[in-house]
Specification:
Low-confidence stretches: none
Number of strands: 10
Structural class: alpha+beta
Strand order of the largest sheet: 5-4-6-7
Length: about 350
C-alpha cells in the first residue's frame, strides 16, 4: 500500500510540474498541442480547441507538449516564436508549482502542532563547559552555526552533526549579536534525573503555537529543504558524499514504504508520507532549475545566453545546436538515473 502511495505521490508531483507549464503557456497565448496526465498507453482523450487532453495508463507523471518546443515551427503562437520573457515564465512555472505544493504541504504538517521547540536555550546542564558571558548562556538564541543560518530548532542537530569539535556560533543575547568563534561543543556525559547520558548539555525553550508561528514554521521548513538540496550537492562535489549516497525514485519509494510501515498509527504514516512529499516537491523545484542541459534550468540558461549572443553578434544561436546540447544532456541524465537505479537495487538486495 505504501509503495503504491509513494508512486502516486511521484506521479502527482510531476503532473503538477507539467500543469505549471501548461497553465502558464495557455495564459500567455502559446499553443499547447497535448496535455497528458500519466504516461504510456492512452486510456482516454478529448480534444478541446487546439489541445488534446489525455489520461494515460502509467501514473508516473505527465507532459505538456507545446508547439515548437523541441522542433522548428514558424507558427507565431509556437513556443519557439514566443518572446524571451514568455519563455522564461513558462519554463520557471513548473518548478514554481512544485515549490508551492511543497510549501502548502509544509503548512499542513505544521498546522496540528500545539507547541514548537525554538532555537533559544532555556538551560544548560550542570557541568556544561564554557558558559557565561564568554560562552553560551540561558536565553541565548542561536542564529547560525559555522555560517549556516538556524531557521528551526531541528537545524541545530543537523549543523552539530556536520560540525567538528569546535564551532563558529552567532547568538542573539539581550537584543545584540554575540560571536563565539572556535567554540568547543561536543557530546559528553551528563547526569540528568539520576541517569548518565551522552549529549550536548543544551535544553531549548518550548513556545505555544500560534497561527503566525505555524505559518512561519511551515515556510521555514520549505526553506530548510532548499538548503538541504544545496548542501547535498555541495557534499557530492566536495567528495563528502559519493554515488552510494545517492537515491533515485526506487530508493526513495523504498524508504517511504519502510517509514510508512514502521509508523505506529495510520495517521503517523500519512504525516510521514506528507513530509516526504513536501521534501521531494522542493527537491524537484530546485533540481529542475539547475543550469543543466535537458532541465528547465538549462533551457533558461540558453535563454540568457541567446540574449547575450544577440547583443554581441546581432543574431540568435541556431536552435539545432541548443537541441544537440539538450539531447546530450538528456542522454547523460538518463545514464546517471540508470546507474543510481542499479545502485538502489543493489542496496535492496544487499540488506
Amino acid at each position: 500500500m505504501y509503495i503504491i502511495a509513494a508512486i502516486l505521490i511521484f506521479g502527482f508531483l510531476i503532473a503538477v510540474h507539467e500543469l505549471g507549464h501548461f497553465a502558464t503557456a495557455k495564459l500567455l497565448g502559446v499553443q499547447v498541442n497535448e496535455f497528458s496526465i500519466g504516461m504510456g498507453p492512452l486510456l482516454w482523450s478529448r480534444e478541446k480547441g487546439e489541445t488534446l487532453y489525455s489520461i494515460r495508463a502509467l501514473p508516473i507523471g505527465g507532459y505538456c507538449a507545446m508547439e515548437g518546443e523541441d522542433e522548428e515551427s514558424y507558427d507565431p503562437r509556437s513556443f519557439g516564436q514566443a518572446k524571451a520573457w514568455k519563455k522564461f515564465l513558462i519554463l520557471v512555472a513548473g518548478a514554481a508549482m512544485n515549490f508551492l505544493v511543497g510549501v502548502l504541504l509544509c503548512l499542513i504538517l505544521n498546522a496540528p502542532n500545539q507547541a514548537f521547540v525554538t532555537p533559544t536555550i532555556s538551560s544548560l546542564a550542570d557541568g556544561f563547559p564554557s558558559q557565561g558571558e564568554q560562552g553560551l548562556m540561558a536565553g541565548d538564541r542561536i542564529l547560525s552555526i559555522d555560517g549556516e543560518r538556524i531557521y528551526l530548532y531541528s537545524d541545530i542537530s543537523l549543523m552539530l552533526m556536520r560540525g567538528g569539535e569546535t564551532l563558529d556560533l552567532v547568538v542573539e543575547r539581550n537584543g545584540e549579536k554575540v560571536v563565539l568563534n572556535d567554540y568547543p561543543l561536543v557530546p559528553q556525559e551528563y547526569t540528568i534525573n539520576g541517569k548518565t547520558v551522552l549529549q550536548y548539555g543544551l535544553s531549548f525553550r518550548v513556545e505555544e503555537a500560534t497561527l503566525s508561528s505555524r505559518l512561519a514554521n511551515g515556510w521555514l521548513t520549505a526553506v530548510d529543504f532548499v538548503r538541504l538540496v544545496r548542501m547535498s550537492l555541495g557534499d557530492l562535489l566536495s567528495g563528502r558524499a559519493g554515488l552510494r549516497d545517492l537515491s533515485g525514485p526506487i530508493g526513495i519509494v523504498d524508504v517511504m514504504s519502510e517509514v510508512g510501515q514502521a509508523s505506529p498509527t495510520v495517521l503517523d504514516a500519512v504525516l510521514n508520507l506528507v513530509y516526504f512529499a513536501a521534501l521531494i516537491a522542493v527537491n524537484l523545484a530546485v533540481m529542475n532549475l539547475l543550469p543543466l542541459p535537458a532541465l528547465d534550468g538549462g533551457r533558461i540558461f540558453f535563454l540568457f545566453l541567446n540574449g547575450l549572443w544577440q547583443l554581441v553578434f546581432r543574431k540568435s544561436i541556431n536552435p539545432k545546436y541548443e537541441g544537440y546540447v539538450h539531447l546530450t544532456g538528456m542522454a547523460l541524465l538518463m545514464g546517471l538515473m540508470l546507474v543510481v537505479a542499479f545502485s538502489d537495487i543493489g542496496k535492496l538486495f544487499g540488506r
